[in-house]
From TrEMBL:
Low complexity: compositionally biased ranges: 780-840
Pfam families the UniProt entry points to: F-box-like, WD40
GO cellular component: cytoplasm; nucleus
SUPFAM superfamilies hit by this protein: F-box domain, WD40 repeat-like
Source species of the chain: Roridomyces roridus
GO biological process, one term: ubiquitin recycling
Residue ranges occupied by any F-box domain in the UniProt entry: 201-248
Extent of the WD repeats: 339-378, 408-427, 456-487, 496-537, 538-577
Molecular functions (GO terms): ubiquitin binding
Acidic residues bias (residue ranges): 672-687, 744-755
Protein name: WD40-repeat-containing domain protein
């Protein structure tokens, strides 16, 4: 039934006063108004946006008052409930046209029904006959009201609408505007409430995607957040637009040029660009504004020193000099796994996915399954402590001819040892065959190890630090040199000479083709890996620089002089000096927002932008061993006095608010190959994307008690960052006393007219490609080289032998000026050929090496 407008009359009340008052209520049926003509369907519905618009409730039903006080209600259409209520009276009901006819009941049946009905009622029904329904208005009984202009308008509305539809558009507009001019403000407001939502247009969805993206890229974050709540289409458009979030990163000062690594690793997320902005925005906001982050503290490793600390995939992994490795749950603070197997202190640790690699003073490298806690592989070959190691993930590398290749083909393990060598191993995958060496200290054991790949010799002293990316490996040694290796061929590409004392820390900077090194001589050097030259010498520290960290835009160095310094890795300029500690810096980590550093019983958080102290996370403790953070989590290992005894404690902070979580960026900027879950074809498509090396954190070495004497205290600070100065006799397995040892110390020759660190860098002649398990072959080559090189020294250096006690506690130089300088070196005109690859390099002197027998004799 077509909906028709109607006028519902209110019941009329007539009062007759005689002796008694009689009130009569008359109910009238609704007056059906003439139906409106059916709207003509236009050819283009967009031209008639109000054709099917729903009117407000106050226009679909409103009251009318006729002359004489009669009241009525106008209704736009039929309402079954209202019609039933208004069309009923006592004893009667008006039938609708579409109602089926009621059945006819005979007299006998009617009397029977009536008798049964009375039997169930307490009072007898009235025998009065029901009153017939009142006659509708306009009948012979007369109308209860007099029609006026309102009713006349409603009755003539169909003809007016037909007449209006026949008018030309210009006259229609004129007619409507004339009516609007004579309409009061309430009427205009009502029309506005109808027209505004109907005529509104979603311009973003109507525009081409490129224009919509360009418009949204100008909005600040607060406006963009409000815009995403306008509609689902706007939310979807904003979330999926890379340009919007990239522009937001740039406008917020959080775009560092290293975003490709995150996007490549997390491209399986629904909106990776939004997740990247969320990660950096929440990391900055929550770490700086959270006044009371969730803090948990629990004991670990008894009272031993925590040498390594790793935060990986919801696990806190700690290693100690008590030979153990522990895996904790940061949420509950419970010990998940206790990995036992090493027979010496664990001083190197790295994790990827569910695999953990550890190096120890027992000279072995162990591979652990973090799910079951089982040791799956034991690699032997080093003849002394495994001091540093790194896991090298496959990544795309730009070659010299402009091509991009993926190196290494499989994940590798690189280890550095006090036996002066480095070794490269294939990282076993889950499910690979297990392996265990026969003799941990036998270098020939690698002959039977299928995972051993390269044996790198060249350093004349212990390898203290290493960093590796792609096919480039950088190692720093106590022989005062930094070496650059090719991880694929094993060739030494550069020998970087310039430091005058031991090298303790190195970091690799692939995007800038640079490497940085920190030394006991108090300097930090930035090396150009394409030319082998020292690009910058950063001075200012007055003692051992034992820790280096690199982020996309900043280089941070920490020294035993109790300060941290923030540098620009491009220009070498000093940005900030962080000076608030009173002792040697034992650990630190940083990103582009903050620096966390531990020393002298305090753990401080610095604002990297202005160099100010933001807060103290730990105070009043004995010492801080390690600190790591990622995303919302921060973990620190320290010694604290509890109940009168010193205990090793792990403190965990959660900076997220309730219900928050975000994907953090790893401190090294290197993601697991399996994080993305991409196929080989998808890897080819993403060849332009690379990752960035953030930081290489060094380990805590030893704790030295304070001394009132200034000289002793200064040397103690150096020792706090260098426990390698004093090595227990049991570490090399010989059991001999090391106090009577003699070691080599290389001192650079100063040539007139040459800049230090430029001419001294030399191209290392490529040795024959080594093969796995070729230890005997190397020994024969080294003996032949020493016979040929007898009587000749290395270019630019001379060696002398001094007692070990002299080198373990060198005299401290006078205090240097506080002002830090950056010395950039230039190339001498006559030395260019010495840095290039040419045939003349074949005649250049090879690096001096020792046979394995001689090295063992020096250790004894």
């Amino acid at each position: 039934m077509t909906s028709r407008p109607s006028v519902v009359l209110q019941p009329s009340v007539s009062t007759t006063t005689v002796v008694t008052t009689t009130t009569t209520t008359t109910t009238y049926a609704p007056i059906q108004l003439p139906p409106l003509p059916s709207p003509i369907e236009p050819t283009d519905p967009k031209e008639y946006p109000l054709l099917h618009a729903t009117l407000p409730s106050n226009l679909r039903q409103f009251p009318l008052v006729f002359p004489g006080g009669t009241r009525a209600t106008f209704k736009e259409g039929d309402d079954e409930n209202d019609e039933d209520r208004e069309s009923r009276g006592e004893g009667w009901r008006m039938l609708r046209r579409d109602d089926p006819p009621e059945p006819v009941v005979g007299l006998a049946e009617a009397v029977d029904r009536y008798g049964k009905k009375r039997a169930w009622e307490e009072e007898p029904q009235s025998r009065k006959k029901p009153r017939p329904p009142p006659s509708p208005p306009g009948s012979r009984q007369g109308s209860p009201f007099e029609p006026d202009l309102a009713l006349t308008t409603l009755l003539t509305l169909p003809s007016l609408l037909s007449h209006f539809s026949a008018l030309p558009p210009s006259l229609q507009s004129h007619f409507l505007l004339t009516l609007l001019r004579h309409s009061p403000l309430p009427v205009l407001r009502t029309l506005h409430s109808v027209l505004t939502p109907t005529l509104a247009r979603d311009f973003l969805t109507l525009l081409p995607p490129e224009l919509a993206s360009h418009i949204l890229s100008f909005l600040p974050f607060s406006a963009l957040a409000r815009a995403s709540r306008v509609s689902k289409s706007w939310r979807s458009l904003i979330d999926a637009d890379p340009l919007v979030w990239t522009s937001l990163l740039k406008s917020s000062g959080m775009h560092w040029g290293s975003e490709a690594a995150f996007l490549h690793a997390h491209r399986r997320l629904t909106y990776p660009h939004k997740s990247l902005f969320q990660s950096r925005y929440l990391t900055q906001a929550r770490w700086s504004s959270s006044t009371a982050p969730t803090h948990r503290s629990f004991p670990a490793h008894g009272s031993s020193v925590v040498t390594c600390l790793v935060l990986s995939r919801g696990r806190v992994i700690s290693a100690s000099d008590d030979h153990s490795i522990h895996v904790y749950d940061p949420l509950a603070g419970e010990l998940r796994l206790a990995l036992q197997g090493h027979e010496g202190g664990v001083w190197a640790l790295a994790a990827t996915r569910d695999i953990l690699v550890s190096g120890s003073t027992d000279r072995t490298v162990r591979i652990w399954d973090l799910v079951s806690g089982r040791c799956t592989h034991v690699f032997g070959g080093h003849t002394s402590t495994v001091r540093c190691l790194a896991i090298v993930q496959p990544e795309w590398v730009e070659m010299e001819d402009g091509r991009r290749e993926k190196w290494p083909k499989r994940a590798l393990i690189v280890t550095g040892s006090r036996d002066h060598t480095l070794r490269v191993w294939t990282l076993p995958r889950s499910g690979d065959a297990g392996y265990s060496c026969f003799d941990e200290g036998d270098p020939d054991d690698t002959d039977d190890n299928p995972y051993h790949r390269l044996f790198l010799e060249g350093h004349d002293h212990a390898v203290r630090a290493l960093a590796a990316r792609g096919r480039t490996l950088v190692s720093g040694s106590y022989d005062c040199t930094v070496r650059v290796w090719d991880l694929v061929t094993g060739a030494c590409r550069w020998v970087l000479v310039g430091h005058t004392q031991k090298v303790y820390s190195v970091v690799l900077d692939p995007p800038r083709h640079q490497a940085c090194s920190g030394s006991m001589d108090g300097t930090v050097r930035i090396w150009d890996l394409r030319t082998g030259r020292c690009a910058h010498t950063l001075t200012g520290h007055t003692s051992l620089v034992g820790l280096l960290g690199l982020s996309p835009r900043t280089l941070v160095s920490a020294a035993a002089d109790s300060t941290l310094r923030v540098w620009d890795p491009d220009s070498g300029a000093l940005l900030h000096t962080l000076a608030a500690h009173t002792g040697a810096i034992t650990c630190f980590q940083h990103d582009e927002f903050k620096v966390l550093s531990g020393s002298d019983g305090t753990l401080k958080m610095w604002n990297l932008r202005d160099g100010s102290v933001q807060r103290d996370l730990l105070t009043g403790i004995t010492g801080v061993w390690q600190v790591v953070f990622e995303g919302r989590w921060c973990v620190a290992a320290s010694n604290q006095t509890r109940g009168g005894t010193v205990q090793t404690v792990l403190d965990v902070w959660d900076f997220a608010e309730e219900g928050e979580d975000w994907v953090g960026e790893p401190p090294g900027g290197v993601y697991d190959e399996s994080d993305s879950g991409a196929s080989e074809d998808e890897e080819e498509e993403d060849a332009d994307r690379g990752s960035y090396a953030y930081t290489r954190r060094m380990d805590v070495d030893m704790v030295v008690e304070e001394d009132d004497d200034d000289d002793v205290q200064e040397q103690a600070d150096v020792d706090a960052m260098d426990q390698d100065l004093l090595v227990p006799p049991s570490e090399d397995g010989s059991g001999s006393e090391r106090g009577k040892d003699v070691i080599d110390v290389d001192e650079p020759m100063s040539d007139d007219g040459e800049t230090e660190g430029v001419r001294s860098s030399r191209w290392a002649p490529p040795p024959p490609p080594p093969r796995a398990g070729s230890s005997r072959h190397h020994q024969q080559q080294q003996q032949q080289q020493q016979q040929q090189q007898s009587g000749s020294g290395s270019s630019g250096t001379r060696s002398r032998r001094t007692p070990a006690s002299t080198t373990s506690a060198p005299p401290l130089s006078p205090a240097q000026p506080e002002a830090s300088t950056s010395t950039s070196t230039s190339t001498a005109a006559g030395t260019t050929a010495g840095w290039r690859r040419s045939a003349a390099n074949a005649n250049e002197e090879a690096p001096t090496t020792r046979t394995r027998t001689q090295r063992r004799g020096s250790r004894r």
